[in-house]
From TrEMBL, chain A:
Keywords: Membrane, Transmembrane, Transmembrane helix
Transmembrane segments: 36-55, 75-96, 117-138, 158-178, 185-210, 230-251, 258-277
Domain of life: Bacteria
Species the sequence originates in: Streptomyces pilosus
Name of the protein: ABC transporter
């Protein structure tokens, strides 16, 4: 042993310092990046993130997604990956302390601040992976033929940027507080901060300090009325991630380099600019456009005439006219009298004045022959729209539907539902309590209808008949069935059904 | 026993526990500080987060850098761990009382129920640490246990099935049923923890050659 060591020639004494090598930094970053991807918390977080995303993907917008909502839906789940990255990066930074190899590393050519750079770079592969996941999630929805609207790239950037931010926080924490308990406790502290910032009592600007900002309302608005400062928020997140990363560099010996100091100053300026931009609230012109779209939607809408019906929609919903026309044609084909050629206007209406702060109910349209259609479609919205069309065909005005409480409910509900693939299932969907017997409230985009137990009984009996026979009976007696104040008993009698036994009084 | 008390008390990670406990008290006081004390909608969440913070601090409680050298002392591991837990118990009780007192009286959730939840979190942390010591060979299982506890805490409200609700609001009609479930969980965790307190007679996996000091 002694012989071999003495045999080794002592290294030549160098007078110049070894040239700093970025190759070593990149090699270290690649190693740490690979290790980070294989850490248990990160793997678990990715598994949950992917499972959750795939499970949700089938339910987005009932198969009719609006892309201005889909982009925001990509933001929440990456936070889970971000927290796992924070925990794992923090542990990775502390690894050399844990195994007491700090002394060995300190003789290497890679100074501590370069090792910090390598740890910061190791977050990049995870971030890119999340970016790919977000991209796939959005593209999947965007490629559906039923998709409408426009996504915002700034909203899509929030998920990957929040992972980057959490990773940078992990590195900073490793340099600031080199104890293993700090990582988990920082996560709990961040939770506290997010609760503070997003508390209902908090003002507008503090709401935007957290990475992923949700909205109170699930309503879909045209993309130019959303009014979220998405680009400023992405700038704020990018600036904050850079600031935190450069702070970690400053703490680990990078403060001697003017480029790091200048970069840190620039990153803080970027963060402040983003924070200022995102706290300015809804721009004046967006607020005006919201009022215009709510009060006078016809000014921005495009109308298409098909047969006797005119379809007026906001420009982004133009491709959905075909879906609406299918339902309208179904309902018209089942109605009798002059209902086939009576002119109808299907108008898309929204309540946009409060933005996405809260859900507001739409008032029924006062114009004769005008049917309201909302911005979402599929699921319960389709039979609700069919009911609205049938109400206008029978009563002439949408506004009148709340006051209808007589036998006309039966032809209204039958023309709306009989053309659907499964009428009884759709009856369950449009009723508030999901029942198919007894009395219930029937939901629609605007006014609700009231069905009594007797109405339900006659309707179910009519739906049980073969469709052609029922259609023949309804069409033959259309005028009598749709006369105001007709009683349910009379409707049953005219249709040749048993008289209903249930209660027949509206509350 | 008395001779053992002082050295054990000296080696305990008091600072970590203090950090977790301090953060926990801050969390428990959050509803009062934000002015949300009147409605109290965030109180159960704040208390649960506080209990989690304390449990995260306690996850490091069984860390003992000198474990490999103390394996041969006459006092059994169950006794040594029991001593550590006995030192933790009064601190935890005092801390939880303080956390509860920080919540304004009118919006305080039912004390028994929320206490069972906090006790389960703490028991899970300590059981995790005891099992890590029991199964593994490491001297400091703390970081891994804290990570496990955090992952559990983040995922369980997300993945908990609807008909086995655990995280319910105080006014909810499912509160008593949920706390029966919490009590069952606490029992299971405690039994598992008790089983892990002993020193295993033989290691479950092949041991590499190691000196008693673990290097």
């Amino acid at each position: 042993m002694t012989a071999t060591t003495t045999g080794v020639p002592s290294p030549a004494v160098t007078t110049t310092a070894p040239r700093p090598s970025w190759t070593a930094v990149f090699a270290l970053a690649a190693f740490e990046g690979r290790r980070l991807l294989l850490r248990v918390p990160v793997l678990v977080a990715f598994a949950v993130y992917l499972a959750w995303t795939v499970w949700r993907a089938h339910r987005v917008g009932d198969g009719h997604p609006a892309l201005q909502d889909v982009d925001r839906a990509t933001q929440g789940a990456p936070v889970l990956v971000g927290l796992a990255v924070l925990l794992s990066v923090h542990q990775a930074v502390l690894r050399s302390r844990r195994y007491d190899t700090e002394r060995h590393l300190s003789v290497l050519v890679v100074p501590p601040w370069r090792r910090t750079v390598a740890h910061l770079l190791s977050v990049v592969p995870v971030t890119l992976l999340v970016a790919v996941c977000v991209g796939v999630q959005f593209t999947w929805q965007a490629l559906k033929p039923t998709a409408v609207g426009h996504g915002s790239p700034a909203e899509l950037l929030v998920g990957p940027l929040s992972v980057l931010l959490f990773g940078a926080f992990g590195v900073l924490l490793g340099r600031l507080l080199p104890v293993p308990a700090a990582g988990p406790l920082l996560i709990v502290f961040l939770f506290l901060f997010s609760v503070f910032a997003t508390a209902p009592t908090s003002t507008g600007w503090s709401r935007w300090l957290v990475p992923s900002v949700g909205e109170n309302s699930s309503a879909t608005l045209p993309s130019d009325l959303i009014g979220r400062p998405a680009a400023w928020h992405a700038l704020y997140l990018a600036g904050l991630a850079l600031s935190v990363a450069l702070a970690a560099l400053l703490l680990s010996g990078g403060a001697r380099l003017w480029s790091v100091r200048a970069g840190a100053a620039a990153a803080v300026a970027l963060t402040l600019a983003g924070a200022w931009g995102q706290s300015r609230g809804v721009p004046e012109e967006t607020a005006e456009a919201r009022v215009r779209a709510t009060v006078a939607p016809e000014k921005t809408q495009r109308c298409v005439a098909r047969d006797a019906t005119t379809y007026c929609a906001f420009p982004e919903w133009g491709p959905r006219t075909g879906d609406w026309a299918e339902v309208v044609d179904d309902v018209r084909s089942l109605a009798g009298g002059d209902a086939h050629e009576r002119p109808l206007t299907v108008r898309q209406r929204i309540e946009a004045r409060y933005g996405l702060d809260g859900d507001a109910a739409l008032a029924a349209s006062p114009h004769p022959g005008e049917v309201t259609v909302g911005t979402s479609w599929g699921g319960n919205r389709t039979p609700e729209f069919a009911v609205a069309v049938a109400v206008v065909l029978v009563t002439g005005r949408e506004e009148a539907s709340g006051a209808v409480c007589d036998g006309r409910i039966v032809p209204v509900m039958w023309t709306a539902l009989a053309g659907r693939p499964d009428p009884v299932a759709d009856l369950r969907r449009v009723r508030l309590d999901d029942s198919v017997t007894g009395g219930a409230i029937v939901l629609s985009q605007t006014e609700t209808l009231q069905m009594t137990a007797a109405h339900t009984e006659v309707l179910r009996a009519l739906l049980d008949l073969p469709r052609d026979e029922a259609a023949a009976r309804v069409k033959a007696n259309w005028a009598e069935l749709t006369a105001p104040k007709v009683t349910t008993q009379r409707v049953a009698q005219v249709l040749g059904l048993d008289a209903p036994e249930g209660e027949d009084a509206c509350q | 026993m008395a001779q053992l008390l002082r050295p054990v008390a000296r080696t305990l990670p008091w600072w970590t526990l203090a950090a977790g406990g301090g953060l926990g008290l801050l969390l428990a006081a959050a509803p009062r500080l934000t002015g949300d004390g009147a409605s109290g909608g965030s109180v159960p969440t704040a208390l649960r987060a506080a209990a989690l913070a304390f449990a995260l601090g306690a996850a490091f409680w069984l860390d003992d850098p000198a474990r490999h050298t103390t394996a041969a002392v006459p006092a059994r591991r169950a006794l040594r761990h029991g001593l550590r837990l006995a030192l933790l118990a009064p601190v935890a009780a005092l801390w939880w009382t303080a956390a509860l007192l920080l919540v304004p009286q009118p919006v305080r959730p039912p004390v028994a129920g929320i206490t069972v939840e906090a006790a389960t979190a703490l028991a899970l942390a300590l059981t995790g640490a005891a099992c890590a010591v029991h199964r593994g060979d490491g001297t400091r299982p703390g970081p891994a246990v804290a990570g496990f506890l955090l992952v559990t805490a983040v995922l369980s409200p997300l993945l908990c099935p609807e008909d086995w609700a655990l995280f319910v609001a105080p006014g909810d009609e499912r509160w008593p049923a949920a706390h029966d479930r919490w009590a069952v969980l606490l029992g299971v965790v405690l039994v598992a923890g008790a089983a892990c307190l002993t020193e295993p007679l033989r290691r479950h996996r092949l041991r590499r050659l190691r000196s008693p000091s673990g290097t």
